[in-house]
């Protein structure tokens, strides 16, 4: 039993790392870059600490342990909010993946066709179950790690230490940007739903995931500024620019390899959101509806994409964060009510 819990914990951590890293590598197209790598690192540190504090608050509020959802996480209003969070986050992921595919392609497919292919692939993966999804995530994780390593090595020759911009008090200058750019991902709701350990183990796992994503973000920020200098902040997709510039020996360009792996990471994130919607529907739906909840989860995420497309691109992240924050609040309230009885 302990081995199964450890395996599930590792698989869940891998899936969350990939999902959160997708937002680091493939930047939202409407998002403005920070003024420098140092400021970006401080901003990420502040945001990571804030996310960890919220996770700690939610974990203590939902304390109850055990497999699956404890009573505090079976509240119908909370599940409805979580379903909305998974739907909107999955919709944003679908839109961003389609935009990124269009950005990297010389002759892209129509947007509807691309979105349909992505949704079908991610939906099939989510419907295969958590074990299949986690095994696939292990492969994607190592491909992603290899991609990051190649991105670093292939751009070594273009690094210039003089490109780094140093600031006098970056920890102060970064506070407004950290507040303005703060985001709370819906993946953390799924983490609280599925993490098999107690409160201390949840926080340990969450801290490990946050540290790994933080280092990925820091590495890309520093690499971008070392190679591109101040021009890096003006790039729509700095990581893709680095992929096009980097090369080793006869392999002059790795961008096709990198972007293929990054699309797989985006697909894993989309599949995770569909799986989260499937889990929420399983708690909300009656027994005779259980067999079709996988397909229903796909349509829920598709509806989220339609809603997200109606929201201005610059405001989508804030809307997603607000919905997730309400989901955290619902979890806390459910835990308080459970302990009051």
Task: Supply the CATH architecture.
Answer: Up-down Bundle
CATH homology superfamily: Amino acid/polyamine transporter I
| Tally of discrete structural domains | 1
Distance between the termini: 31 Å
Rg measurement, Å: 20 Å
Class based on secondary structure composition and strand pairing: mainly alpha
Name the shape in a single word: globular
> Approximately how much beta-strand content do the residues carry?
under 5%
Q: How would you summarize the topology of this molecule?
A:
Elements: H1 2-25, H2 37-61, H3 76-104, H4 111-127, H5 130-154, H6 170-180, H7 187-194, H8 199-228, H9 238-245, H10 255-284, H11 293-310, H12 316-340
Helix pairs in contact: 1-5, 1-7, 1-8, 1-10, 2-6, 2-8, 2-12, 3-4, 3-10, 3-11, 3-12, 4-10, 4-11, 5-10, 9-10, 10-11
What does this 3D model show about the protein?
With 341 residues, the protein is mostly helical. The chain has a single domain, classed as Amino acid/polyamine transporter I (Up-down Bundle), CATH 1.20.1740.10. The chain is 73% helix and 0% strand. The protein has twelve helices and no strands. Helix 2 packs parallel to helix 12 and helix 3 runs antiparallel to helix 12. The chain starts with a helix and ends with a helix.
Attribute tags:
single chain; 341 residues; mainly alpha; Amino acid/polyamine transporter I; 12 helices; 73% helix
Summarize it.
The protein is mainly alpha-helical and 341 residues long. It is 73% helix and 0% strand.
